[in-house]
Amino acid sequence: MGVLDHFSNLFDCSNARSRLKRPRQFQTVEIKVKMDCEGCERKVKRSVEGMRGVTQVVVERKAHKLTVVGYVDPGKVLARVAHRTGKRVEFWPYVAYDVVAHPYAAGVYDRKAPSGYVRNVEDPQMGNLARASSTEVRYTTAFSDENPASCTVM
């Protein structure tokens, strides 16, 4: 069967590029774009709505965040938003506050980040910071104000 496949590939009249092209994956692209007013929000939303493969566009003006869902290439989405709007854009650099081990460490905490988010930094120096062990956590929470039985321990 290998010989027949080889000959059929030699005499194939269809476009060869279509076979080599990878299909796009369904993904979510998050982009940081500065938006001040409803006009900016509308301009950013319209810049990506017409793209091929886009299924959903969500704009959060207060967080300066654009979320594009669909069968798209992240680099092309970023370039298109930058070109069509003329604004400075970058991929969403923040992660949720709960995900990071040390959210207030230098380089991670960012005042400009939306509430509940910190910068996504993979720094090898962050591993050197001390983490509390389970026994330390148990003893420190025993005397906290949120523990209703702490007065009996004291």
From TrEMBL:
Please provide the record's keywords in A-Z order: Cadmium, Lipoprotein, Membrane, Metal-binding, Methylation, Prenylation
An example Gene Ontology cellular component term from the record?
membrane
Cross-referenced PROSITE patterns: HMA_2 (PS50846)
Q: Which residues form the HMA domain?
A: 26-90
Location(s), subcellular: Membrane
- Main subcellular localisation: membrane
Q: Which CDD domains match?
A: HMA
GO MF, one annotated term: metal ion binding
Listed under GO biological process in this entry are: response to stress
Q: Which domain of life is it from?
A: Eukaryota
**Similarity comment text for this entry:** Belongs to the HIPP family.
Protein name in the entry: Heavy metal-associated isoprenylated plant protein 26-like
